[in-house]
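Changelog note: in this version the structure field was regenerated for every chain. One regenerated record is shown below for reference.
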Amino acid sequence: MKIGQAPANVVTYSDTTATPSTAYSYRVQAVNTAGVSGYSNTATATTPAPPQLLHIGDLDGSTAASKNTWTASVTVTVHNASNVPVQGATVSGNWSGGFSGSASCTTTSDGTCKVTTGNLNKSKSSVTFTVTNVTASGGNYAPSGNRDPESDSNGTTITIIK
């Protein structure tokens, strides 16, 4: 046997019909040159589930005013590829315009979370929040799927006007 070659008794099997997160059991029969056969113990293999794709399903802005300042908040909804709300996703983003800084929140069971600015000066008429990333166990952020059913944002960026 040369280096890099598999031994003659090693067989590789590929199952192209396997579906994600399903356990399959395999049993191997070996036959030698004299025609004597034997079976291996049963081995189980599980195909891994592909990561779910995550996207922003909605961005909604709101404001609250006090005497000399105002506050802006954004409620973010995270969905999977089937448009089902995702719990436990961390949304990261940046504020710009009347307030600069980063913010993050983690979605609850309804797939929503909220980020809020500090006290904005009354002279500022708007502030913008941009989602930069969404992370969740077993998920990949796919910003191309971002949307907003009310069209008050582009699904990635929302401007809140005082």
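Spot check on this record: The domain at 52-161 is CATH 2.60.40 (Immunoglobulin-like). The mean pLDDT is 84.
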